[in-house]
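Thought: the user wants the 3D structure for the chain below. I'll pass the sequence to the structure tool as-is, report back what it returns, then summarize two notable features.
Action: structure_tool
Action Input:
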Amino acid sequence: MHLRRYPAAGPPVLLVHGISSNHRTWDLGPQRSLARALQARGYDAWLLDLRGHGLAERDPAGRRQRNGWTMDDYGRYDLPAAIDHVRSVSGFDRVGYVGHSMGGMVAAIYNALVGDDALAALVVVGSPVDFADPDPLVTLASRGAPLATALTP
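Observation:
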């Protein structure tokens, strides 16, 4: 994993990319950056590269590691580690979360497998979900209203 921070004094928000992307999804430049917009509004923005993406860990030969893990591993191990790090550094008990596509799926997996209350808010953008049992997603989505309100004019 790799985390990039856009520091501010307010509550932390973790931004997680989609399957064929990386942290740059959230910062395409000064005028096209959700990370910078959050920072300007006082949020402590954190951009996560999941393993196998962007600046995440590489093997000893310098190649990106792309195989040998599952989506469940992202939700069970990687996301909890990232959330714990953000909480530790920021000093906040809970973290806002914005996930694009796979990033939203990882949040749903995290909620189903870990099920703690570390996420203060959840915003999911373009994520496929199975609505056969919407309870975990509904619970997380209900926490996203304050963050969504802050992001809209």
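Final Answer: Structure generated. The chain has one domain: 2-151. The beta strands are 2-6, 12-16, 44-49, 95-100, 119-125.
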